[in-house]
Design goal:
2 domains
Length: 299
């Protein structure tokens, strides 16, 4: 026996259909307003899983890029400082060669000695260089100057631990060189500050043999400084390669995230117009269905 269809049933079904049409329009309008296809997990549970994964990987990749940028800054600054130290050392060697000439009068030797003393002070300033408030040559003790006492620099040892930046999953790269590596440890024959102290003394005493000995030790320290600078250059090249790789990975992850989350605006506009037409048609149909009133039934 067929079920009896009442006016209440027609009204209820009409309201249900209108509510569904309005809900569809609301979802489309929300996607247009946010520009995102997925605004809550129920929109696409599987897509939301992928979207969260891409966000997590992008966040980690951005942190690696920040680490790489910090490493690049540290390495570039260190290379610049080592270049300054190399220029100072080269000038000291030139003066030492002049001082080793036995024809210099005493006044010339004292003038050379005075300039070497100033260069030693400048070398100490370089050795205590800071980047963003951190001493770059004192290992992990970046809050302390590696050579706090200029009068006893030759007997001071720096912290020997490395500063390492994580530039990829499980990839750590040391970015610093210590003062011990650059200027020598206490007791080394070619400890730079000892060599400079001895050179100043030799020049003041008109000790040509001492000046000649200092030249050989300066050459030894210069070679070690150049080796350290070459190592910094190799690390810089590796960091730049990592930076390019991370930037490419970030672009790929962003593209995948966009495909998963972002809305197709042109398609949504078309869908919205279609939904509006359906809604208007539903209203027009409903107006015809519920038009009879109690007076119509009494006639």
């Amino acid at each position: 026996m067929p079920a009896r269809v009442t006016q209440t049933m027609l009204n209820t079904q009409l309201l249900r259909n209108l509510s569904g049409n309005l809900g569809r329009m609301e979802r489309i309008q929300n996607q247009l307003a946010t520009g995102r296809r997925i605004n809550q997990p129920s929109d696409d549970p599987v897509g939301m899983t992928y979207a969260l994964r891409y966000r997590s990987e992008l966040s980690a990749n951005e942190q690696y890029l920040r680490n790489v940028d910090a490493a690049v800054s540290w390495l570039e600054f260190t290379d610049s400082v080592l270049n300054q130290a190399g220029n100072i050392l080269q000038r000291v060697r030139e003066l030492a060669v002049q001082g080793a000439n036995g024809t210099n009068p005493d006044s010339a030797m004292q003038a050379i000695r005075a300039e070497v003393e100033q260069l030693r002070r400048q070398m100490l300033d370089v050795a205590n260089s800071t980047l963003n408030g951190k001493y770059i040559f004192n290992g992990q003790q970046t809050d302390r100057p590696p050579y706090p006492d200029p009068t006893t620099a030759a007997g001071q040892a720096t912290d020997g631990f490395q500063i390492r930046y994580e530039v990829g999953p499980g990839i750590e790269l040391p970015v610093n060189v210590t003062g011990n590596e650059i200027f020598g440890v206490p007791g080394d024959a070619d400890n730079l500050f000892k060599v400079l102290d001895d050179l100043v003394t030799a020049l003041g005493n008109i000790d040509y043999a001492g000046v000649n000995q200092a030249i050989g030790l300066l050459d030894s320290r210069m070679d070690k400084m150049l080796s350290a600078r070459a190592e910094i250059g190799a690390r810089s090249n590796r960091v730049e390669l990592m930076q390019a790789r991370l930037q490419e990975l970030g672009a790929n992850l962003t593209a995948l995230q966009s495909k998963t989350e972002d809305a197709d605006i042109a398609r949504l506009i078309t869908d919205l117009k279609t939904a509006e037409s359906v809604y208007q048609a539903s209203l027009a149909t409903g107006a015809r269905l519920i038009r009879p009133s109690l007076i119509d039934f009494l006639r």
